[in-house]
Amino acid sequence: MLGQNGKLGYAGVERAIVIEKKVHTRCFEVMESDDDKFTGDNKCYMDSILAMYRENLIDRTKHHIGYCFNLDFDYGALANLQHFSINNLGDPFIESNYGVHSRQFEVGVLDWFANLWEIERSDYWGYITNGGTEGNLHGILLGREVLPDGVLYTSQDSHYSIFKAARMYRIECVKVDTLISGEIDCSDFKTKLLSNKDKPAIINVNIGTTMKGAVDDLDLVIKTLEECGFTSDKFYIHCDGALFGLMMPFIKHAPKVTFKKPIGSVSVSGHKFLGCPMPCGVQITRTNHINVLSKNIEYIASRDATITGSRNGHTPIFLWYTLNMKGYKGFQEEVQNCLRNAQYLRDRLRDAGISAMLNELSNTVVIERPADEKFVRKWQLACQENFAHVVVMPHVTIEKLDEFMNEFVEKRPSWYDQDGPPCLASNVGSENCACAMHK
Predict the structure, then answer these.
(1) Cα 145 from Cα 353, distance rounded (Å)
(2) Are residues 367 and 314 in the same domain?
(3) What is the mean pLDDT of the chain?
(4) pLDDT-derived band of residue 225, with 50, 70 and 90 as boundaries?
(5) Of 325, 346, 364, which residue constitutes the final position of a domain?
(6) Is the sign of the CA dihedral 90, 93, 94, 96 positive or negative?
(7) What distance in Å separates the CA atoms of residue 342 and residue 21, rounded to the nearest whole number?
(8) Residue (of 122, 144, 107, 157) closest to 313 by Cα position
(9) Which of 88-97, 175-184, 187-196 bottoms out in mean pLDDT, i.e. has the lowest?
(10) How many domains does the chain have?
(11) What's the CATH number where 199 sits?
């Protein structure tokens, strides 16, 4: 909340969520011509709007560090495919009456991910989704179909799409406490499991939480289930790996997400670490699970078990293209570069006396929330309560981080009253907090 002097005070005050509603003041109107024919004026109007919009995209891309999208890509080689309406409706593994599709690319991408997560081609089913949320909606739906009376357990730091799925499917949802790191607290998980021991468990495991990049301990989650008497037929685990699910396999000392463990499904986003000009994702599950959801559809002469039915047929080609261009070695180099740059940012923040936390297996640097909303919007920082984060993706260079830090350090002194910056000990731990009390 802003005080009378325009500076931010934190003592016992709950911050309001800042949401702007100005879309109509900035929208591009559709102009109707007085003539029946398309005129030169129409074209000039559209050309000027598109040129202005492109300049805006260039600027916004330049200052994009708060969300986990990889903006470093070039798909110019695929431009000639935009003339086609490519629709991957139905089951990716079953031919349909609709012939303008890219299932041959989609299945190639799915096979690559099945190999990454160690499941045989005959044992998995999957499809390319519209993004991480759809992957989570599908994974939780599968859990509900396999265990109709199951209780959903997920940490309080989980992505909002998990709680959306619980509302949509009317599943009882139990929020589990988290550690300072953002990782699920398995002692609290155990307590809550035991209080519902008569019902099966559907568990969402985070492979990188939204705000802190924390990785839930999958092995400890499984051990906790077993200690509470849940056999493998009484639980279903969905792994939400939106960003880090595709980075973790390329870190040598990181724990493995694999179908050799008793998990039911894994989803990742394709537009995040891989980089894609439109939202997309990958969802993989076991063949025996998908059978409870599949329905034969005469209209398309196929089977369907997806959320959306019709699916973007262009995205599998984009994903197939970048997988071929980079390969395992290229991804490993990008992952290591992101982690190094994230450590660089954390160190610069600490040297400047700014609260900062970086989990060991993460490229998400948690920082003190800047007290200037213009600064937040310029750098497109994702914020929650008194903290924000910077996600160091492949396009976020050292030079960009230096530009961000220089502006942050320059403007920060004018943001606070005599109390100084907020205490973030409850969010990032006292050892990472740089407030007056914990310096």
Answers:
(1) 50
(2) no
(3) 92
(4) very high
(5) 325
(6) positive
(7) 33
(8) 107
(9) 88-97
(10) 2
(11) 3.40.640.10
CA–CA gap between residue 245 and residue 205 (Å, rounded): 11
Q: Check residue 32 and give its pLDDT.
A: 76
Half-sphere exposure of 103 (CA within 13 A, CB side): 17
Please indicate, yes or no, if residue 345 is contained in any of the structural domains: yes
The length of the chain is: 439
Bridge-partner residues for 176, per DSSP? 155
Q: How do residues 242-271 score in pLDDT, each as one tens digit?
A: 999 999 999 989 999 999 999 999 999 999
Residue 46 lies in a domain: no
Return all residues near 247 (Cβ < 8 A) that are at least 6 apart.
Answer: 208, 273, 335, 338, 363
Pairing of strands 201-206, 235-240: parallel
Cβ proximity of 393 and 72 under 8 Å: yes
Residue 274, both tokens: 């891989």
Cβ atoms within 10 Å of 234's Cβ, excluding its own = 15
Kindly state whether residue 55 falls inside one of the protein's structural domains.
no
Q: Are residues 130 and 211 in the same domain?
A: yes
Residues carrying an active site annotation = 362
Do residues 328 and 250 touch, judged by C-beta distance below 8 A? yes
Per-residue pLDDT for 107 more than 80?
A: yes
**Contact (CB, 8 A) for 131 and 280:** yes
Q: Identify the domain containing residue 277 by its residue range.
A: 81-325
pLDDT at 438 over 70: yes
234: closest CA among 222, 245, 217?
A: 222
Q: CA 384, CA 163: separation in Å to the nearest integer?
A: 17
- Give yes or no: residues 197 and 276 share one domain: yes
Of 325, 355, 376, the residue at which a domain comes to its end is 325
Contacts 24+ apart (CB under 8 A), 339-344: 339/251, 339/363, 339/392, 341/392, 341/396, 341/397, 341/398, 341/401, 342/392, 344/398, 344/401
Would you say the pTM of this structure is higher than 0.90?
yes
